[in-house]
Structure formats: structure tokens, C-alpha cells
Amino acid sequence: MFHQKVQDSKKNGECPEKINEVASLRCAFELFDANFFNDKKILEIVKGVKELNIPIIRANRKLAASVNGGLHNPSVLVFNPEWSKEQPQSIGKRFHYPSLIGTKRPKNEEDIAFMSVLELGELIKTKQITSEELTCIFLQRLKRYNHVLEAVVSYTEELAYKQAKHADELLAQGVYLGPLHGIPYGLKDIISVPHYKTTWGSKTFKDQVIDIEAWVYKRLKAAGAVLVAKLVTGSLAYDDIWYGGRTRNPWNIEEFTTGSSAGPAACTSAGMVPFAIGSETAGSITYPAARCGVTALRPTFGTVGRTGVMSISESLDKLGPFCRSATDCTVILDTIRGRDPGDLSSRDSPLDDPFLVDITKLTVGYLDDAEMEVVQVLASKGVNVIPFKLNYTVDSVQGILNFTMDVDMLSHFDKWQRSGQDDDYEAQDQWPIELRRARMIPAVDYVQAQRARGKLIQEVREIFTVDAFIGNATDWEKVCMGNLVGLPVIVVPTGFKNISNPPSSGSRRRTTITTGIYAPPHHDHIALALAMAYQSVTDHHKQRPPINNLGPNDSIPNPPTVTSPPRLLYF
């Protein structure tokens, strides 16, 4: 074909140099699925690109993309997951938490470490423990077990004791800020806190200090919570590999947490923090929560402000809590939700009070991959449970998410790629390959992906004929669909099974079993209420992982070890 075109061109009097130029350009056009222009049009396009497009591209890049991470100059194209056109009535109303009067301080620190947020809050409120004491307990646990789990990037010890002391002083003056008053917690290390490193898990940025108070940090600080550590994110919020190692699963330290909210999941599971804040673009809350057996909420898109947080995709990124229970997730969500002036996608979420939801009035679907214990428990509590299927017709859901996420990410790390810093990335088969490929996605096809996303949203809205549905939280298709549509989901521990190929004499290591409870956008309260109802009569979420006390006859090759101070390893 090429030889014939050359012959034809020669007959038309075209020079060989021009022929070769067009042939090379045509190969490039094939990469964009745009090899339908004739030779004359290709040369016209190239001339226009050089004279007009490239100068505009470079001017825009200079204006908006001179700093990596997407913390500045957000896109004005804002995704709104709202389905209802009705004006919500419950904006701004806070939840009514259950009273835990009579809660007593346990005798040992292991039991204190696994108390719920509300229980710890009651101990502080009744002055059975101080915030400084509690902060000390969790800082010690973080330092004791981080050698095993590789889950902490930096300890914010000086700040923590300062905040704890302030919380104790306020209480002595009769000022109580609420259930998070004096409660320690951790932040995923894509969330900026002044004077402390925000490394994004990457050796390229491991010395980076961003003097911005992230909105979610402001909300927690105002509620009296005490930041004790910046926790591991997979490098640039991808998986569980970071510049300091790879984060391990407390329930089975032979395997890793997945990610990218690796540190929040591992530290909450191991009782190293009472709760933590992670993020999700596509599975970064659901996957590590399921692997580590903790309760975690991916809220409706836009529920929690993202100012001061590294951005992958402005229409997909969400912040959410990792906790001991659905009740704790509810308390944390109530604290951090609300409009962030610096985040155009955030809004005052019209959530009803999860503690006041009458679940007997709900109809809940269950998919083929739902954990049936959850279905049966909810049915026993009066919920109308019915079989349910996600029968949308859009068959390119995973591709839509990849186009959206990768192009958006590249816009935030354009300078990183252009300067060759991607060559230093911790896992070359992850972001570097994806973002090089993203460079070749035409703008028109990115927009077409968003139009296909709109079709998906419309179809999911039409088939969502139940109040909520139960299904696997880590099925990749549902992860992609849920994030593209903006659905909230809560990951709920539902049991354990033996690890693969355990030693013949047995092991304490376990594989966790979880499920997801999904709700329509801005109906997080429904998912939370159902999860609380399930956990009110089960105790899977209260179990404690063995970390590396695997059993008397169990061992793994070269396992990480816990160092001083010596403590009980099985908890």
C-alpha cells in the first residue's frame, strides 16, 4: 500500500522528502485512531498545530501545570453526582449520637487501643483518661508495630502532644468539643499538614513540606481530634508500594495491604490508631479495608472537601474514614462533611441522621456475590431484602474510568513526566506506563468517555429501584461503576477463613471476608444505618489481628519482627 502511494505521488510530481514526511505523520495519526485524513489535510493539520496549538498548550502549561500534585488551579469542570432535583431539607443538621454512659476504662492498654471512638470519647469526657495518656498509648503502638507493618511515614509527635494538652486544658475549663475531643487519629500522607512532610509516598517528593492546612485536617482539629501520624500511601496514591517499603496486612503479614490507603487500613486494623482518613479514586478505600478487615466508608463524591490533598482526578477523588465500626464511620463522617470553599466539587451534603433511620421501611437488594449472612441478619431485623441485578448496558465502564483517571492524573503530574522523574518511580509497571499511554489520548476521546459516563449514570439511576444493595466491595467492575457514578459504599467485615496453604499445625493468620453496602448518591445514611444494624448483632468487626504472633508452629520466611519495648503480640 505504502509503495503504491509513493508511486502515485511521484506521478503527481511530489518530492520524496514530502512523501516520507507524510508517511511518518500518518503512522502517528494511527496512534490516535485518526488515520482517515488525506495527505493534504495531514500537512494542513501539522502546520496548524505548530502555529496555533503548541503555543497555546505551552502557555496553558506554564499557567496551570508548573507545580505537581493538582493542589492549585483546579479544573472548572465540576462533576455533580446528584440524582434528585428536589431541594434537600437536612443540610447542616448534625447527627444525634448514642449515649455510652457507664463506659469504664479497661485495665490494660491493649483493650483501650481497640475501644470505639465513642467509647474513648466517653472515657475522656468523664475524665477516666486524659488525651495526653491516650496519645501516648497510640504513639507507642505506632512505633512498636510499624517495624512489622511499614505503615507510618512520619510521626507528628510534637504536634500530637500539643493538641492533646490543649484538649485536656479545654476539658478542665468545662469546654467539651464533642465525641472526637482528644481522640488520636492518622492521615493518609497525601493530606497536607503545615510543618510536616507530605511525601505522597514517593521518593521524588519525600522531603516535600506543603504549608497548607488541608480542609479535612481543619475539620478534625476544630473537633478536638489529635493527629499522631502521617500514614502510608502507595507512591502517588497507587497500590501499597512506597519509597520506604511495602505495607503489610495485620491479619496475615505474609501478604500486603493493597492500596493506596495502605497505612490507614493497616493502622486501624492493628489498633495503632482509633481511626484514620484515607482516599479513593478507584478502590483505594475499598480494597485495603477489605484486605485488612476494617469498616470503611467511601462517601458520596463531593461530601468531604479536598483542599490540601494531592489530586488524581477531580471528578473521582474522595476522602473517607477507616474505623472500628460503622458507628465510628458515622461519627467521623459527620465531623468532616460539608462544603469546602477551596473545593468546587464539595457541597453541604443533605444526609439524614443514620441513627434515626427506620430500616424496617427499607427495601434492600442483594447481588449474587453478596455475603448472605448480612442479608439474613438484615432480614431478621425487618428489612425487606430482595434479589437484585445491575443490568446497565454500558460495556466500557472500566475503560471509561481508566481514561478519566489517567488523563486527569497526567494533567496534575505533567511536569513530573516531562522532566523524566517518572523514571525514578517505585513501581515502573504502574503510573509511569499508564501516564505515558495517557499522553496519547485525544481530547475529543476523553470528552467522549465523559459522555459515556453520563449514559452510565443515567442507566444506574434508572435501575437503582431499591434503597440500597449488598454486593462485593472489591469486584473491579463495581469499583469502577461506583466511582464513576459517585455512589457511597461501606465495607463491612463479615468473617474470616483460613489462609491459603497454612502450616499443617495451624496458624492464627486469617483471610478476612467482607461485603459492601451501596446506596444512591447522598444516601450514605442508608448504608451506614444498615451496616450499624448488622454490626449490632455480630462481632466480626471487633476481632483483633495477630500481626506476627502467628501461632506456636507457624512461621514465614524472613518475617518482619517487632522490636522493643516488648509487649503482647497477639491482640
UniProtKB/TrEMBL annotation:
Signal peptide range in chain numbering: none
Annotated segments matching region Disordered: 541-565
Alphabetized Pfam families for the sequence: Amidase
Amidase domain location: 133-465
UniProt GO MF annotations: glutaminyl-tRNA synthase (glutamine-hydrolyzing) activity
Superkingdom: Eukaryota
PANTHER family: AMIDASE FAMILY PROTEIN, TRANSAMIDASE
Name this protein carries in UniProt: Amidase domain-containing protein
Species whose genome carries this gene: Castanea mollissima (Chinese chestnut)
